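FAQ

Q: What does a record look like?
A: Structure on top, sequence underneath. For example:
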């Protein structure tokens, strides 16, 4: 059973940076995607970025492309989300999840990011 645990959230000023971590435990297949999602207060959860475990290929939401970078460290079984040039609208709870057979699951509990002006 795959479990995901997020960390690294916090309070940062507008224009600042944060790096989130998603520690992955359990059996990981090269075809899995690990993704980051976020949910802002009063809004639905939205996709942010994903990486394929084996190939390292990535995909980003338009709203974060060029500012956020998703990477993985296979040795540490960890996926990172480097967030630069943060904006107030990036304030949200960030979750990581695993995609297998086309379905996102194994959701973590989330880590909160607050961007202040």
């Amino acid at each position: 059973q795959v479990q995901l645990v997020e960390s690294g959230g916090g309070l940062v000023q507008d224009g600042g940076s944060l790096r989130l971590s998603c520690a992955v435990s359990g059996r990981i297949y090269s075809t899995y995607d690990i993704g980051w999602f976020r949910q802002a207060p009063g809004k639905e959860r939205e996709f942010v970025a994903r990486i394929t475990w084996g190939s390292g290929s990535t995909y980003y939401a338009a709203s974060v492309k060029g500012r956020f970078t998703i990477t993985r460290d296979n040795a540490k079984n960890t996926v990172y989300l480097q967030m630069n040039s943060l904006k107030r609208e990036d304030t949200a709870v960030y979750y990581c999840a695993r995609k297998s057979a086309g379905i996102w699951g194994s959701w973590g509990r989330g880590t909160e990011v607050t961007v202040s002006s």
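Q: Is there anything notable about this one?
A: The chain is about 0% helix and 55% strand.
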